[in-house]
């Protein structure tokens, strides 16, 4: 019996406009009513997930959780209490930021525990934020010293040009000699976390706290930053729009995409 479902949000559980289908809501509510944990697992801040939690009936609920920043934190919904944290060291985050900002057509995000800062924000990125309840603080200059006394969770860059994203990815790997976790997400971002910090590590660690084994966890994903969780749980599921690497890692590929692929998977696994 599966005891936990964890799901990526953007382009897995949520539509391209950031909304969720009623079919997905109903399936999750049915699974939760049977005692199954439902844990959103996102690269975004947990603060941007609050409206979704209200739709799912999990808002401010004790002993229910959200995984944010690609595994950087695990937060209990009641009181938004951080129960697990894996931050980036300052020097590491600064090197990632300085490397990514050299790409002048990209904007660069710095996530602290509860704030998002953006250097050189792009209009198309800002439009994407608005569909996902994301707010941010503009960085007027690339002076990274403002983060010296803050807890940094991750650094990412956005550019819709695939060639530029590949160049940024390669530049990060070269700067860190491979000793960093760098992934793609949403078809527009390059994401950088501390080595060993990922969605999979976080859900396994949460499972240990709750007495849930990896074999008792179902994970839904679509993109490369989901691979770490898909390869560590008992039942990895790709929605139909998952990239080829995600579909290859999955034991189940749904016929439906983000519209109701999660609902389809939950039903096929007998969890509703």
Automatic annotation (TrEMBL):
GO cellular component terms given for this protein: cytosol
GO MF annotations in UniProt: magnesium ion binding; phosphatase activity
Classification via Pfam families: Hydrolase_3 (PF08282)
Name of this chain's protein: Haloacid dehalogenase
Organism: Levilactobacillus bambusae
Record-linked CDD domains: HAD_Pase
Taxonomy of the source species: Bacteria, Bacillati, Bacillota, Bacilli, Lactobacillales
